[in-house]
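Translate structure to sequence.
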């Protein structure tokens, strides 16, 4: 299995694999992105999923979370919201606002993300 369909299939299997398996394949995925054999979005999905499953801040904004207090989904906190587009551009991804609008019909709000990240960090430090 190769090409886009092969990448999609393999990455979806990894996305739902156990944490140890996902972590094992991250270096291979990074190299495949560098070699232009894998789209960056697959790596981002895996890296952010690993972080969020561990209860950590994500890197690229690829994972959403349900917030019971607002009864809505929003972006899981990331470690530096002000520079999320810079990180996304460095790996070859579109800006977060464009990604969220196209994928989820969702409007990005940087100020809200900054607040969510601060609240997350405060909760983690307790």
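Result:
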């Amino acid at each position: 299995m190769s090409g886009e369909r092969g990448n999609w299939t393999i990455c979806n299997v990894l996305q739902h694999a156990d944490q140890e398996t996902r972590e094992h394949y991250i270096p291979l995925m990074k190299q495949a992105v560098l070699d232009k054999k894998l789209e960056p979005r697959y790596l981002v999905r895996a890296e952010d999923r690993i972080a969020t499953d561990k209860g950590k801040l994500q890197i690229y904004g690829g994972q959403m979370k349900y917030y019971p207090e607002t009864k809505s989904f929003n972006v899981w906190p990331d470690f530096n919201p002000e520079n999320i587009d810079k990180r996304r551009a460095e790996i070859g991804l579109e800006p977060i606002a464009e990604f969220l609008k196209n994928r989820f019909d969702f409007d990005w709000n940087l100020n809200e993300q900054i607040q969510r990240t601060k609240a997350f960090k405060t909760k983690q430090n307790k």
